[in-house]
Specification:
The structure holds two protein chains of two kinds. By secondary structure, chain A is an alpha/beta fold. Chain A is 48% helix and 13% strand. In chain A, the strands form two sheets. In chain A, strands 1-8-7-3-4-5-6-2 form an eight-stranded mixed β-sheet. Chain A has an eight-stranded parallel beta barrel with strand order 9-10-11-12-13-14-15-16, surrounded by six helices. Chain A is globular. In chain B, helix 1 packs antiparallel against helix 3. The interface between A and B is medium-sized, with 21 and 18 residues.
Amino acid sequence: MLTLAGLATARGLASGPVYLYRGDEEIPVSEYVIPVGREGDEFMRLKKARADVGRDLETLIGVLSERSQDGQDAKVFEGHLMILEDPILKKEVDKLVVENRINAEAAVKKGIDKFRKQFQRMNDEYFRERVRDLDDVERRLLRALTGFTRSNHLELSSPCIIVADDLTPSETVQLPRDKVLGFATNGGSTTSHVALLARAMGIPCVTGLGFVTQKVKPGALVLLDGNAGTITVNPDERTIADFAELVRKQHESEAALNDGKPAGTLKDGGEVKIFANVHPGVPFGALKDMGARGIGLYRSEYLWLNGEKEPDEETQFEAYKAAAEYVRNLSPDAHVTIRALDIGGDKTVRGITVKENNPFLGNRSIRYLLSDKDVFRRQLRAILRASAFGKIEIMYPMVSCVEEMQEAAVVMEEVKRELDAEGIRYDRNVPVGAMIEVPAAAINARAIAKYCKFFSIGTNDLIQYTMAADRSNDEVAHLYQPTHPAVLTLMRHIIRVANELKLPVSVCGESASDPIVGVLWASMGTDVLSMSATYIPLMSKILRRLTRRDLDEYKELAMSMQNGETGSEILEACRKWMESKIPDLEALLI
Amino acid sequence: MAKITRELTLLNKYGMHVRPAGLFAKTASKYDCDVEVEKDGNVVAGKSIMALMTLEASCGSVLKVTADGDDAEECLDDIAALIGRKFDIPDEQ
């Protein structure tokens, strides 16, 4: 029996046999000569890949040295970090790129090959084995450079727990979802794509396990605890019995919630609507089980990330139609809000997104769609056609100004005329809204509202842009504060404008699922909280303990703290208030 | 400017593998002086983990460590101490 500790990435308990998804397949690399004058760009690409890999390794080291018992695993990755930053290797590879104008992938391979040959010639077996460390660093670099995806798709015949070093977005979306009981990965991030997907699908997930792929054998029994962030390999009978008891308790507490009232019902009978955030392809069955009343965020970009190219209109239509048809099961007034292609930033699609100096301030989302209107038109056609089959809303991501809404409206009208001419049925009044996630749009919400039937607040980006801080960067993550007074001021403004104009407003950012912050947004007057399905039961439990009057009190508390208190002081006061209302809050969160 | 050479014997169980080489290079990199390491006629850069690993130095190997620069003395003291402590690796004492 072996217990490993990692990060609790997606809640839930699972047990089952291991499916080992290995990442040691060789990554094909082609070599070519960089045109004169472009070697500087190529060098930047190399540097960026190195920085990305370095950051991943540092995260992993941080997680492992905190969580693992002896810290040995972290030490190995410290070695990998040193290999990555080795001055001689660096110089060698840099020279190949800058002087010989060889592409970065081939340069990395050549540079490492040189050392690999030396190692392979060694007499001592122990030293020869160290070639694996080189291989590992090389694979990380090549993956960062090429976005390489394993070619052998998973073929699962029976349900199992996927154990992998890490999964790329396209690998994750191709998983046969009904066969995946849980995820356990070596990689360290809780914001990775596998994390997002696991939460959306309600599949328990533990990340940051370091060497789990080397420590488990295919088919071994694993108990995975996504609440505590641990996995137990080959458990003994007693541990299995304890785990079964844990599972029973969890079911019991979920059943206690099953009093026939919808998710999001308040103690006094009021309601905060809870919708789900989904990816295309996620089995919708889980949504009803978890209590979702609709789909508040349908991330259409995963249709692109899946195939790494644009899906044709039919493929898109089928996907949107499936969501529209399903959503009718959730509640009488349910709808699915389809977010138009949200790419750029950290979501890249080969052949569509280009390298930009500052991708988060670049040609993202609605900006991209307006710059490539054929893609936009095809997507709108597919969505409108699907609107004949169920209630659909369309929202545009990353809106900054009214001109974008105006320009998008023109395209929408053209597409509608096209469909009319072809005699195709669709919902003529399909509501169009804006995601409010750029501070400019938040401040200017009243003007943007003229072009909207609803607002959806994307708090991830709104907070990141307001605070100018990337929360995945450890050095500045402390600045990413959902309760910073500036963020609260913007949130209050957006919600007030929407309420005054009787425009429905939802929050679909990750903060919506946070028991402290999400409830705060609800108290401030948002109509819908939209979150990954896994988080719905927890949010329901919290809301079931509060009355509308409690929410008003909560809002007053937060609003009264706008006179010099810091974001963390406000958060702390909110937490204290919540604990005063729900004394066993701590226990609910476990 | 000082150029000093010392002969140091590796004492830890598994010799100059990833972690010891990493710690050696890290220690050497703290100093401005140039550091070279020689074993059986092979001379490599002392600030490179990769180069150090290629020495294939096992427990008992004698390394000729040469430091060249103003802080050569302190650098060699530091490296000698590290090797003497068997790189502080618990399993290899």
